Amino acid sequence: MTSTQCPLVRDIEHNYGSIAPISGICRDDESKPNDSSRSIVPDIIANNAGILFIITSQFFFAAMGISVKLLNSLEPPVHALQVIVVRMGITFICCVIYMVITRVPDPIVGPRGVRTLLVIRGITGFFGLCGLYWSLQYLSVADATVLTDLTPLTTAVAGCLILKESYSMKQTVAAVCSLIGVVLIARPPFLFGSPGVNPQANHVVPEATPEQRLLAVGACMISVLGSTGAYTSIRAIGKRAHSMHIMTFFSLWSTIIAALGMIVFKIPVVYPNTWTWALVLFMVGINGFVAQALLTLGLQREALSLCVIGVYVQVLFAVVLERLFFGVTPSLLSVLGAAIIISAAIYVVLSKQKQQDD
């Protein structure tokens, strides 16, 4: 639980996260239902809404990754910065339209008191995204996945140090087990040796020099720091801003910086030449928008230490979707890693439910 002593999370006038009372828990002025009428499943869902939002968001993040893979298999290829511009441009438009229709106050500038945090979220989120794309130039997908999956651990530590959130030993063990599951699924060459065939890659990663690989690892660390800053700022904002405010700042800053990057580095704009090409590019934006919305809702409602497990579930979704779209059969190590991730997630949810029941 967030400490009220932290200056980053002080209350202000608006609260955009008001929700109905948890099922089975009534206020003093309401009559309590009979014990026989209570349902355990709705209680678990209501009490774990934050982590369930995050787990669901990881499915759409995995679907976005599949869309990017499909896009890379089409001609002509699209530069990563252009993908960011399209994805974040669609997200920005959807956010503004939603806030205008629903009459959310301050749709562009955000509510007073959290505007600095919103800017921090936007800028750090861009570097988290850009660092990952940059690292993939010289690192394999498996290496980059393992390195960037340090983000949930660093985010949980940041939440403990900066936001004064609790971080139990059970959550630490579950997070480490989930990271082991990610490693078993990704199987980075620097731990498992160079495989003959990498079933998760659609292209051969060019041989990188030690200097290039070192730069790529540094880019991964930039991605980890950027994502940590983004997640921590979202948690610090909490319910003082609408989830669409948070997404608007992220998408706006990402679009602006990526567009400036295309201008500075003289990257040509690639236009779609087929309906399939345009549809896949559009799906990248839509999947990214839904994923970011669910992730923001989850981070606003759940402690950062509990968000660790939900983020790791993305690897499981990626394995399943790759099987469906590309016919990639997961290995025994991948199945074992997926089982570890699922077990850790269930353990965290049930432990939290038991603590609340006690």
UniProtKB/TrEMBL annotation:
Sequence ranges assigned to domain EamA in this UniProt record: 49-186, 225-349
Topology with respect to the bilayer: Multi-pass membrane protein
UniProt cross-references to InterPro entries, sorted A to Z: EamA_dom, EmrE-like
Any Pfam family: EamA
Chain segments annotated as transmembrane: 45-68, 80-101, 113-134, 146-163, 175-194, 214-234, 246-269, 275-297, 304-326, 332-350
Subcellular localization(s) per the UniProt record: Membrane
Annotated keywords: Membrane, Transmembrane, Transmembrane helix
Matches recorded under SUPFAM superfamilies: Multidrug resistance efflux transporter EmrE (SSF103481)
Descriptive protein name: EamA domain-containing protein
Originating species: Rhizopogon vesiculosus
